[in-house]
Structures are given as structure tokens and as C-alpha cells.
Amino acid sequence: MGQRRSNGRNVWRVVSRMSIGLGILLVVLGIAGAAWNFLAIRHDRQANPPPGHIYYVSGHAMHLYCTGMGAPTVVLEAGHGEDFTVWGKVQPALSRVARTCSYDRAGFGWSDAQLGERDAIHIADQLHALLMHADITAPVVLVGHSAGGLYAQVYASRYIKSVAGLVLVDAYTPNPLPEPPFSVALDSHSDAEFAWIKATVALGVARLIGQCDAIPAGMEAYAGWIKASACDYPQLDAYVREDRALGDSRREGAGIKSFGNMPLLILSQDTTRPIPTFLSGRITTKDWQQYAAAHGNEQAAYLKLSPRSRRVVAAGSGHYIHYDRPDVVIRETTALIGQIRSDATAAVADKR
Q: Per residue in 276-297, pLDDT tens?
């Protein structure tokens, strides 16, 4: 009996020591992973400084990247949790038509995080202040994707004399769409899931499995900037803050009834396509069809916001039209710019 007790204590002692050793090993690996991720980001940022200029808005750095020449200036508003690099397939081409600017919202890319709410009104006000600092005072063509489309609408309603035209690239609508496809498609997460995602990024796990080096096809010219901004875990805090403010942003967008006679271009994804690959097995065909019908109706409802509105469905495209069909974004935005220029020429002629 005494021998069995002694053996039991020995086994428990070995297990305890192994557990402590494993715990120490995990801590060491965590510290090493975090250091690796931190040093990799610092290296990539030093090797790839941001293009364009840094302006200080209310004492906080904001990054603006303008290329090309010609009025009206086009301002690109990225989607939820994204920075200026998402416009890499669009900005170079539009720059051959007009001056084109992309930027990083507060907390993303090379723009400092800012205190206060992250709803559409506050985001619009910060963009307006940035444009004033950059001496972009003439009316602009505002192009917004996804949540950026919602922010662009609020901007246009608050600064209507500063906007010559509006392009909504599969923009969020004020009305939430049916569950579950919409929440799955937007990768909605709970607080616990956000904490887990942030931990995997901060500890270098995401970098280990290659998520920090993924470059979308056709974006190779932006590869250095994409890598320099990827897996910078503090940006996840900015993402969460915008995510939590989406309800307020939708309510602010719902209050917009008209943009007057402003030219309005609505670019919508192709909801007639089959269930996207990344949703396959996660939702049913019926769910997808329900979502697609609701999404199409909401996109069509934007036509009521201006008598000079026009909607184009990008055939074969998913939510990221500027990735899947950049040619549609470029072609249709260029046509809108031409329309605005013709209006300006006619107005000048009428005054003579």
C-alpha cells in the first residue's frame, strides 16, 4: 500500500513538473511570437513608408494618398476595417482621368487612432477636416465601398456643397439584412471571438500560418504597404470600435431622404451567382436566396435618393467589386466624372 502511495506521488510530481514545463514553454513561445510579429511589422513599415502625405487633424496623424491631376477630385472611402491599399486596382486607373485620393481612417493603416465615437458622423467629420488640411476644397466625387459607402452617404448629407457626385460600391444599407447570411458574410464576431483573433495576431500565430503575407491577385504593386499594415494588432481595436458603432451609423444613414440633384452611381454585386465559396457549407441555398433578394431590393432603393441616380450590377462580382470587377468601377466612375464635367461646362456657358 505504501509503495502504491509513493508511486502515486511520484507520478503526480512528474505530471506537475511537465505541466509547469509546458506552461513555461507556452509563455516563452508567446513572448517569442509577439516579439517576432512586432519586429516584422517594424521592419515592413521602415522598408515601406506610406505614399502621399501625413496631415495632423486635431493633433492626430491622418494619411492621405493623392495621385493624378484634374477636377473633380475623387476621394475613395474604404470598407469596414480596411485601409487605402484596398483601392490598388482602381486608383492608378482613375488617376489617369482625375486627381484621385485614398486615405486611412483613424486607427487604420498609417493614421493614428482617435478618441470619441466611430460612427458615420464622426468619421465623416474627420474626413472633411482632413480634406480641408490638404486644401481639397472644391466639390469632390466620393466613392465608398461597403461600410465606407454608408460613411460616404452621411458625409454627402452633412457636406452636400462639398460633394459633386457619389458612388456607392455595394454599400451597406441602413436596414440590416436577413440573418444568418449577412452576419456570416461580414464575419460578425462576439467580444470573446474578437479577443481570440487579437491574441492570435499579437502572438504571431497569424503570421506563422501566412495570413500576414497574403497579397490579393493584381495587387502586387501594393504588396509592401499591405504587408506593412497587415497583422498590426492595435488596428483590430479600431475595427471593433467601428463594428460596435455600426448600429448608430445605420440610424444616421436611415435619416437621409435625398441628395437633391446630385449625380448618384450605385454599383451592386451580382446576387444571381451561386453561393460564394467561402460561405459554402455554412448557409443553405434558401438562406442565400433570401439574402440576395433583400440585398438587391436595398440596393435598388438607393435610386430614390436622387433623380440623377443610376444602378449597375457588376456581373460575376461578389461584395468586393473593386477586386472582382475593377473595370466596372473604373468605367462607371469615369463616366460619372465626364457627366459632372459636362454639367460644369454647360453651367459656365449659361452664365455667358
A: 777 777 778 888 888 888 888 9
DSSP code string of 294-349:
HHHHHHHHGGGG-TTEEEEE-TT--S-HHHH-HHHHHHHHHHHHHHHHHHHHHHHH
For 37-53, write each residue's pLDDT tens digit.
667 777 777 888 999 99
| Nearby residues of 222 by Cβ (< 8 Å), 6 or more positions away | 85, 88, 215
**Separation of alpha carbons 18 and 24, rounded Å:** 10
- Give the residue carrying C-alpha cell 456607392: 168
97 contacts 68 by C-beta, under 8 angstroms = yes
Q: Is-contact 103 35, C-beta < 8 A?
A: no
Cα Rg, the chain, nearest whole Å:
24
Region 191-199: what's the mean pLDDT?
72
Read off the pTM.
0.87
Minimal CA–CA distance to 334: which of 94, 66, 70? 94
* Cα angle, residue 325 at apex, residues 316 and 149 outer, rounded to 5°: 105
DSSP-based three-state secondary structure for 64:
strand
- The answer for residues whose C-beta is within 8 angstroms of residue 66's C-beta and 6 or more apart is 52, 53, 73, 99, 100, 101, 134
pLDDT tens digits for range 144-182 = 999 999 999 999 999 999 999 999 999 998 876 655 455
> In DSSP terms, which residues pair with 166 in a beta bridge?
142, 264
Which residue type is seen at 91?
A: Q
